[in-house]
Every structure is written in structure tokens, then in C-alpha cells.
Amino acid sequence: MKTVLISIGAALILGALLLLATGADPLTAYQAIVSGAFGPDGFADTLAYVVPVAGMATALAIPLRAGMVNLGGDGQLVLGAISAISVGLATGSGILALIAGVAAGGAYAALAALCENKFGVPLLISTLLLSYPAMSLASYLVRFPLKDEGSSLPQTPQLPETARLPELIGLGVVLAVGIAYTVIDARTPIGFETRVIGWNARFAEYAGINRPRLTMTLLAFSGGTAGLVGAMVAMGFPYRFIDGALITPQYTWIGLLAALLARANPLGTLAAAVFFAALTSGGFAMERATQVPRELTAILQAVLILFLAATSGLLRKRGARV
Q: Which residues, by range, are in coiled-coil regions (predicted)?
């Protein structure tokens, strides 16, 4: 906790120096971020942003707890979304749509685990490269077979009323997933095995832990969670899949930053996701108040992780375990 607070403080100081260099008042900028994220005009936007960011942070923290990095969140997210929309349009069932999203994301992530277990392709490579076919497939589907004929945009028709998902339900699902992850991590054999591999992979192998089996399980859960997030976002307003809409906000990247900041701790990951979501959402208010580009918040996020890595050696240790 001390290391995280030091990293946040150092990043805020560096951000203040950058703001001063642009001629802006750091206090005004930071106040604008806070008011823009949690004020009456911006809280709803922050809450809507928290759902996908916290969901993706949890999804990526699951294998990261064992020192396994899943970089295929975008592909799993998009595949889960387009699968949910397809099933929702065909059946009108929100439950079946969510199940389809989870199944699609989980199966696709398990394919990356299979590539490592059977062919020796590192997860860093297999998860990342498998994202591109998934995104291309979704783009093809939304532009041709599933395209809304009444629109010039690459988007699907709107879901029927019975298959739509209110935002508050999505928030509740994300919290439930976070709580389940916390309980599994702390109270079950698979949670213990995951933490042991994260501490020392070689010792875990000597202790008889089946790493290939655990890799498959963790990636399936990770991908399934990412697919669930994609399904919930697509089933929320505007109740359709729009090509590129899930990739542009960088939910996967911000979620990975949150998981890294919390060292994949379940509750810490949720807290870090809220922090990053508020920072991103408040960046729009900062831009209006100070004329400083909101991209500064992305710089703060990256610098924060760099300070964390420098003070804790997290990335070096994770790389050695992988």
C-alpha cells in the first residue's frame, strides 16, 4: 500500500510540473478532474465508464495473479459483444445473450492457452495476436450479415426490449464478479495454486501444481469475464454493436493498468479501476477548465505505472515468473 501511495504521489507531482510547463494551474486542473468525475454533471458518465473498466481490470487480473499476462482483452471483449448481440437479435433473450458472450470470450482465450500448452507459444504473443482475427471477424459481421440496413454506419440493429440491459444491472454484475474473484482467490484450492505460481513458478511445479491445466482454467475465466463485459456494454445503451466503439475507449489498456497498480489483488483491482475511470472521465472537465488536452490523464496513468514498477520491481518480477 505504501508503494502505491508513493507512486500516486510522484505521478501527481510530475503531472503538476507538466501542467505548469503548459501555463496551467495544477490545483485548478486537479479540482476540475475531481469535480468532473464525481460532480453532479459527471458522476453518471464516470459510473458508466467504471463498469467496463472495472470488468476488464478484473478479467486481466485473474491470470496476472499467477504471473500470466493476457493481452488479448480487446479480441475477447469484441467477440463477446458481437456474440451477445447475435444471440439477442435471434432469440430476444438477455440471459442467453450474456451466456453467449461469456462462452465466446472464454473459448477464445482458452485457445491462446492451448497454443502455449501444446505449441509453446507464449501467452503474451498468442493472446495479443489472436485479438486481430476476432476484431476483424466482428467488423465483417457488423458491416455485412448483421448490418442495420436502415443505417449508413457499420452497426447492428437495436436489440429488442427483452434483450436490453440496464446500466445498474451491469454495475451489479461487475461487483458480483469482483466479489466472486475475491472469494475464489482467498478461499479455494485454485486460488491458492494461482498465488503459488505467481510467487514462484518453479516451486509450484515442484509442489505438483499442474501449470498447463491452471493456465487453461485461468485464461478461460479471464476471457469469459472479458466476453461478459463486452456483452453488457453492447446490450446497454444504444443497445447495439457499433464497429470500433469498444476499442476506442481503451477499456483493455486501462483495465490492465488498474490490475498492475493493484498487483492483481481482487479488491485493490476494483479500487484502482474506479480511480483510473475517474481520472479518465474527469479529463474532459479538466480540458474544458484549463484548455489542457485530456491526453494528460493518459500520461499520468502511464507515469503512475512506471513509478510503481521502479519502486516495487513488479514488472521485473512478473517477467521472471512468466
A: none
- The CATH number assigned to the domain holding 28 equals 1.10.3470
Residue type, 177: V
* pLDDT tens by residue, 221-257: 999 999 999 999 999 999 999 999 999 989 999 999 8
- φ and ψ of 64, to 5 deg: -65, -25
Backbone angles phi, psi at 155, to 5 degrees: -150, 160
State how many domains the chain has.
Answer: 1
Phi and psi angles of residue 242, each rounded to the nearest 5 degrees, phi first:
-115, 125
Q: What is the predicted pLDDT for the residue at 205?
A: 84
Residue 116 is part of which domain span? Answer: 2-321
- What is the per-residue DSSP string for 89-119? HHH--HHHHHHHHHHHHHHHHHHHHHHHHHH
**Distance between CA 99 and CA 318 in Å, rounded?**
32
